[in-house]
């Protein structure tokens, strides 16, 4: 996958998203597509004591017309920030590296960004720093129809599709049952493995 790839914007994305980025030289994040519901664009999964837990950022969808992802605004009428931050704390407070990374994530989520795409980009940039990845990320300027780009992962990395490749197993706080959960937010890997997290991509 060396060279340029195309990905969607994503909220605290899954491990496979960062794996794809780590193996590429230049990353283009799509900002000209129409918003898609029930995707990683505004949701992620973390591991709670009761199993995988969905965290979803509420957004305004505007009129009945299709809305570009770059124009999707976050809905702050719902107390989602407090819910997400409490859920992250409850799930990972006992993980080995939670205290080293959580404050940076908390600051970004608490900022009240107007657009989901801007918050996602800021979160992705800090995640890359945590993982010690120096890959160049920029926005698309025009929409490329699906199939035009050879390394197009915008619609392949999806909670509705099978993973692109297996995730290496690592220690998870709530894995007492012996079950490994592979499709979680990259934060699960970072909070549990800390400086070693990048080696699992």
General description of the model:
The chain has one domain (4-200). It has helices spanning 15-22, 80-92, 98-109, 116-130, 186-193, and strands at residues 4-7, 26-29, 43-48, 51-56, 59-60, 73-74, 136-139. Strand 3 and strand 4 form a beta hairpin. The protein is an alpha/beta fold.
Return residue spans where pLDDT drops below 50 for at least 5 consecutive residues.
Answer: none
Query: In which order are the strands of the major sheet placed?
Result: 1-2-7
Structurally, the number of domains stands at 1
The chain-level structural class is alpha/beta
Helices, by number, come to 5
Tell me the strand percentage band. 5-15%
Q: Can you count the beta strands?
A: 7
Largest sheet: 3 strands, parallel
Overall geometry comes to globular
The amount of helix comes to 25-40%
**Distance between the ends:** 13 Å
Q: H/E series, N to C?
A: EHEEEEEHHHEH
How many whole angstroms does the radius of gyration measure?
16 Å
Round the mean pLDDT to the nearest integer and report it. 92
Which key features would you list for this structure?
201 residues, alpha/beta, 7 strands
Question: How would you briefly describe this protein structure?
Answer:
The protein has 201 residues and is of the alpha/beta class. The protein has helices at residues 15-22, 80-92, 98-109, 116-130, 186-193; strands at residues 4-7, 26-29, 43-48, 51-56, 59-60, 73-74, 136-139.
């Amino acid at each position: 996958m060396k060279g340029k790839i195309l990905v969607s914007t994503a909220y605290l994305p899954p491990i496979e998203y960062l794996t794809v980025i780590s193996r590429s030289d230049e990353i283009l994040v799509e900002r000209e597509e129409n918003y898609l519901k029930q995707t990683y664009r505004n949701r992620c999964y973390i591991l709670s004591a009761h199993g995988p837990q969905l965290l979803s950022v509420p957004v305004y969808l505007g009129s009945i017309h299709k809305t570009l992802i770059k124009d999707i605004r976050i809905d702050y009428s719902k107390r989602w920030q407090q819910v997400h931050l409490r859920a992250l704390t409850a799930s990972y407070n006992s993980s080995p590296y939670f205290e080293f990374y959580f404050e940076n994530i908390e600051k970004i989520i608490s900022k009240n960004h107007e657009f989901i795409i801007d918050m996602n980009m800021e979160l992705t940039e800090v995640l890359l720093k945590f993982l010690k990845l120096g890959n160049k990320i920029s926005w698309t300027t025009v929409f490329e129809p699906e199939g035009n780009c050879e390394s197009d992962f915008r619609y392949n990395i999806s909670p509705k599709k099978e993973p692109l490749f297996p995730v290496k197993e690592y220690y998870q706080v709530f894995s007492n049952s012996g079950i490994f959960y592979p499709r979680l937010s990259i934060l699960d890997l970072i909070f549990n493995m800390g400086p070693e997290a990048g080696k699992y991509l």
